[in-house]
Amino acid sequence: MAPIPTALKRLAEHALVIILILAVFRATFVLFFVQWQIFDGQQSVLSRMVFNALRFDLQVTAYAVALPSLLSLAVSARPMRQWEVAVARFRKWYFAVVETLVVALGCVDLGFYANFQSHINIVFFDFFNEGPIGLLQTVWEEYHCLWYGFALVVTAWLLFVVAQRIERCPMPVSRRWQQAWWIPFLLVLAVCMRGSVWRFPLQIEDTFVSDNKTINDIVPNAPYMLKKALKEKRDAFKLRSASDVLAQYGFISLGQALEIYTKGAVSVERGDTMAALRRALFVRAPRKAMPLKPNVVIIYGESWSNYLFELDGPGCDMYMGLRKHFDADLLFRRFQSVQNGTIASIENLTVATPFPRFFASKYRLAQLPTSLALPFKSCGYDTEFMSGMDMAWENSAEALARQGFDRIYDKFHILRDDPRARYNSVGVYDEHLFDALLRQMGEKRAKPMMTVVMTTTNHPPFEFPEHLRLPPIAADTYKKSCFAERDRKVLGKYLTGFRYYNRALARFLDRFKASKAAGNTILVITGDHNVRSILNYEVVDRCWQYSVPLYIYLPPALRRAAYGRLTGRWGSHDDILPTLAPLALGGAEYMRMGNNLLDTAAADHSYYSYNVERLLAENARVDELRRYVNARNALREVYFQLLLRQWDRRAVE
Question: Average pLDDT in the 442-471 region?
Fold first, then answer.
């Protein structure tokens, strides 16, 4: 066997130094920030924690090694003594600098965590907003700069000595017959850069290995978290002036938008714009005597399409047991999601934000008055967000905890509490999520609960439980003109995901209605967005394009015969909180973006269904309602602009 090229050996030694540096900082993190008691009962996750931590370290190391590896490979292809010596000299200086930067970044990350209980995130860049003079003054006054600087210089010198020793021997000229070793090296390098040999590359969700935040914080390293923060900074939305926002929606002044939205009831007084916006956008739920406050559960079904129910028929069971529940309770079919993506719909429900990717911005760390959880908490509720997914996704756990959700219950909690639970690459199967929800509903609690639930199984890559057996679908179903997708295998996965969720939901409802919880729980079930890509809207009416169903179960004490006549109204996700408020939020203030779908005194023609891409309403009122919704959206965005600027000022102070 041909000997390993010297350049490869030296690259491996440099890589090992970087891995050791990252390991030292992780050990330091554990020493200073981790209490050993947290590992009690968590032994089962330790192997996954170590494995994922190693994956993150190998990924950072692979990216650091990539450039000198390519240069070394290029030189070895046409071996010349002077070029190999030059590349060796480059490696020495390159790795000394890179390793010093890794050390400096590790120190910054430890300091950041000590102050903010978080690894480097997008807030880190706020320090640079003070300008160079202000930044230098802050650093000089608050940190032992001379000692830190001296320590960093000594560390840099030591790392240079190490790099020099690795490259100390004269480079023998590479032989062509040694080139074969580069093939496995480059393959390993590519795998490490991807961080995975599985379907998905290494991603932020892999930092979550347990239901304990501190254990999860052991997993990532400083360079990876800086990369994540830089990406969030690059993608962050920009705050605009009020005049720009108003102009976008077709208004010449804030007063004009207030006039249209509040019908003249609110105007700016004494120049207090924020107070006027609060009066326009926030309302107080009517006070009612509630001897026993109802529990509230809001379920977002992944890609729960409204139109796919239309395919139900002989040989094509799409309801999978849901029909009896739809017939017995309230079902709104003229209903749309407001947003058209999962995280966008979660953000819309939980904080009513007008901005995309809000949870990826620094403002996820600010508790907003628009939070769904706050009015429930003010009424004595405990609040929870449940999902079968890994809640590191899109910073969901961090953001929702800041918004007043008392508990985040995700994949790792379910796996801990239910040894039978199984999961796929997206999350725990919906059936186990519903089992967990039922268990919680059966627990005795001192306070009523408000729970938001997000399912995951009806989502690509459509991986289902091994035991799944559904009634077959007639072959001619796949040939219907309503489908844009003609690949039967692909289409079959979408339909299986929809039917699997419906059956899991139907079985949940069967058990729920047989339980004590049904006597005092409101259920609101809808889709986060419609199914994507498989429907042909040249054939299917476009009113279905963003449509999801809304199902409401009311406990006996809250039912009214008149409610059954209201289900033909237009509606959207914006109407969920206004519909719940009179039933559960006596006296609480909340941000009202929609209408109470169960208001028996309101005229049906006043309702509309708002999606960011389409407004649906009675034809005669579409233009009028579009102007009204534009005013609402303009006022909300101006309110958020002012609110977030206030938070920026407080953060700097």
Answer: 96
Residue 625 resides in a domain: no
Q: Token pair 């080139």 is at which residue?
A: 179
Whether cis (ω within 30° of 0) applies to the bond prior to 375 is no
Residue 412: CA count within 13 A, CB half-sphere: 21
Reported as a pLDDT band with limits 50, 70 and 90, residue 148 is: confident
Q: How many CB atoms lie within 10 A of CB 125?
A: 15
Residue 545: exposure state from Cβ atoms within 10 A (0-12, 13-18, ≥19): middle
**pTM reported for the whole predicted model:** 0.88
Judge contact between 621 and 605, C-beta under 8 A.
yes
Q: Residue 652 has what pLDDT?
A: 61
Enumerate the β-bridge partners of residue 298.
Answer: 452, 524
Amino acid at site 465: P
Q: Range with the lowest mean pLDDT among 129-133, 348-352, 510-514?
A: 129-133
- How many CB atoms neighbour CB 396 within 10 A? 26
Task: Give the domain CATH number at 426.
Answer: 3.40.720.10
CA distance 614 to 621: 14
* DSSP element (H, E) containing 578: helix 576-584
The first and second tokens of residue 132, run together, are 């160079």
CB neighbour class for 487 (10 Å; exposed up to 12, middle 13-18, buried from 19): exposed
Chain centroid, CA 94 distance in Å? 37
Same domain membership, residue 487 and residue 347: yes
The closest alpha carbon to 429, from 491, 503, 479, belongs to: 503
Which domain-ending residue is among 184, 201, 235? 235
Q: How far apart are CA 70 and CA 459, in angstroms?
A: 39
Q: Show the tokens assigned to 196.
A: 């995975």
Which residue reads 């904080």 in tokens?
Answer: 351
Residue 500 in domain: yes
Residue 141 domain-assigned (yes or no): yes
Q: pLDDT tens digit string along 410-428?
A: 999 999 999 999 999 999 9
264: phi > 0 → left, psi -120 to 50 → alpha, else beta; which? left
For residue 61, the surrounding DSSP H or E stretch is helix 43-77
Report the C-alpha gap between 151 and 160 in whole angstroms.
Answer: 14
* The three-state (H, E, C) secondary structure of 268-331, written as one string: CCCCCHHHHHHHHHEEECCCCCCCCCCEEEEEEECCCCCHHHHHCECCECCCCCCHHHHHHCEE
Residues 6+ apart with CB under 8 A from 440: 384, 386, 409, 449, 451
Q: Tally the residues of the chain.
A: 653
Provide the residue range defining the domain that includes 180. 6-235
330 and 193 in a common domain: no
User: If you compute the radius of gyration of the chain from its CA atoms, what whole number of angstroms results?
Assistant: 29
- Compute φ and ψ for 457, nearest 5 degrees: -65, -30
Q: Is 40 helix (H, G, I), strand (E, B) or coil?
A: coil
Long-range contacts of 92-96 (CB under 8 A, 24+ apart): 92/160, 92/163, 92/164, 92/166, 92/167, 93/163, 94/67, 94/68, 95/14, 95/17, 95/18, 95/64, 95/68, 95/159, 95/163, 95/166, 96/156, 96/159, 96/160, 96/162, 96/163, 96/164
φ, ψ dihedrals at 313, nearest 5°: 175, -175
Q: Give Dmax (Cα) for the chain.
A: 91
**Domain ends where: 218, 235, 252?**
235
Q: Does a structural domain hold residue 640?
A: no
Q: How far is 480 from 495, CA to CA, in rounded Å?
A: 13
Contact between residue 13 and residue 88 where contact means Cβ atoms under 8 Å apart:
no
What is the count of structural domains for the chain? 2
